[in-house]
Amino acid sequence: MIRKLKNGHYRLYSTKKNPKTGKRRNLGTFTTRAAAEKHEREVQFFKRQG
């Protein structure tokens, strides 16, 4: 999940909430949405690795 911050950057959050805190994990902050989307694809790819 990508959200735009007030300063214009984009932050990638996990889709699942952390049961301990009730918040989503921050998976990185990026200057452009394209960079955030690229990293999201990399994360999804890595999740599927054995």
Structure explained in plain terms:
The protein has 50 residues and is of the alpha+beta class. It has one domain (2-47). Helices cover 30% and strands 36% of the residues. The protein has one helix at residues 33-47, and strands at 2-4, 10-17, 24-30. The protein has a three-stranded antiparallel beta sheet. It is flat and about 35 Å long. The model has no long low-confidence stretch (mean pLDDT 94).
Largest sheet composition: 3 strands, antiparallel
Residue fraction in strands: 35-45%
Number of domains: 1
Strand order of the largest sheet: 1-2-3
Outline type: flat
Overall SS class: alpha+beta
List segments where confidence is low: pLDDT < 50 over at least 5 consecutive residues.
Answer: none
Spatial gap, N to C terminus: 23 Å
Rg, Cα atoms, Å: 12 Å
State the helicity in percent bands: 25-40%
List the helices and strands in order.
EEEH
